[in-house]
Amino acid sequence: MMSEKIEKPAPAVKRSGAKAAAKPSRGRPARRRPKIPYSAGEIEEIFRRLCVQRPEPQSELEYTNPFTLLVAVVLSAQATDVGVNKATRKLFAAADHPAAMAALGEDAIREHIKTIGLYRNKAKNVLALSEALLARHGGAVPADRAALEALPGVGRKTANVVLNVAFGEETLAVDTHIFRLGNRLHLAPGKTPDEVEENLLKVIPQPYRRHAHHWLILHGRYVCKARRPECEACVIADLCRAEVKTSDVPAELRPLPPGPPLPRETA
Ligand code: SF4
């Protein structure tokens, strides 16, 4: 595989306009920019490198259409993608659209997903959201946040994943990995996932917003791990401002597989 030279980041820019930007404008509340220790050029460089690694990153959840994606994401709450995939292979072979899922019924859905945590409640939600899709949307998954969040078992995070992966929107679903990275790297500090999401969307340069969600999840899952970040394997080690980092030398920048680097469960 080709490797790429890592360019020197642009020098830090003065943020003299930050105060002015925080001033309330007529009719709109003041919106503060997060205090982050990176220049615009450094943030651009962070995402450029993640983009070189995986130009077209993919979800690790297996799905065949927007409906199976939605169900897989609902099932993935407090479960690993690997565990969800094991259960959904047979479930989706039996039902890959709302009418078939509704016909399958709660008992059969529960039987298919019983290896996943919270499976009883999730089986109820999968049935209820299938019925709701049939009743309200003609069996189609809506490309609309409010309509998605009105479905049983669907919250902001699930809606963000579906809008991003199925419909190409520039949304960012903050899971445990993205929440950790946003705070650890001081890239988008926040006390809640919503705060981190809002702050990340403020700082991520536009060309990178579409795939930032997957880049950050994969980086957090396989490199910047919760307990022991593997800084020597990190392509942004020279730019990173995390207190826990153990190396300033960036790893070689080269393209990686679009999904997980190894066939193992490490979440
Ligand atoms: S240098 Fe270490 S702490 Fe910083 S992003 Fe890379 S793995 Fe995480």
UniProtKB/TrEMBL annotation:
It catalyses: 2'-deoxyribonucleotide-(2'-deoxyribose 5'-phosphate)-2'-deoxyribonucleotide-DNA = a 3'-end 2'-deoxyribonucleotide-(2,3-dehydro-2,3-deoxyribose 5'-phosphate)-DNA + a 5'-end 5'-phospho-2'-deoxyribonucleoside-DNA + H(+). The keyword Endoplasmic reticulum does not apply. Binds 1 [4Fe-4S] cluster. Residues 75-222 form the HhH-GPD domain. The keyword Nucleotide-binding does not apply. Residues 1-35 are annotated as: Disordered. This is Endonuclease III. [4Fe-4S] cluster binds at C224, C231, C234, C240. It comes from Jiella pelagia. Keywords: 4Fe-4S, DNA damage, DNA repair, DNA-binding, Endonuclease, Glycosidase, Hydrolase, Iron, Iron-sulfur, Lyase, Metal-binding, Nuclease. SMART domains: ENDO3c, FES. DNA repair enzyme that has both DNA N-glycosylase activity and AP-lyase activity. The DNA N-glycosylase activity releases various damaged pyrimidines from DNA by cleaving the N-glycosidic bond, leaving an AP (apurinic/apyrimidinic) site. The AP-lyase activity cleaves the phosphodiester bond 3' to the AP site by a beta-elimination, leaving a 3'-terminal unsaturated sugar and a product with a terminal 5'-phosphate. It holds the Pfam family HHH. Residues 25-35 have a biased composition (Basic residues). Coiled coil: none annotated. Belongs to the Nth/MutY family. InterPro entries: DNA_glycosylase (IPR011257), Endonuclease-III-like_CS2 (IPR004036), Endonuclease3_FeS-loop_motif (IPR003651), HhH-GPD_domain (IPR003265), HhH_base_excis_C (IPR023170), HhH_motif (IPR000445), Nth (IPR005759). Its cofactor is [4Fe-4S] cluster. PANTHER family: A/G-SPECIFIC ADENINE GLYCOSYLASE/ENDONUCLEASE III, ENDONUCLEASE III.
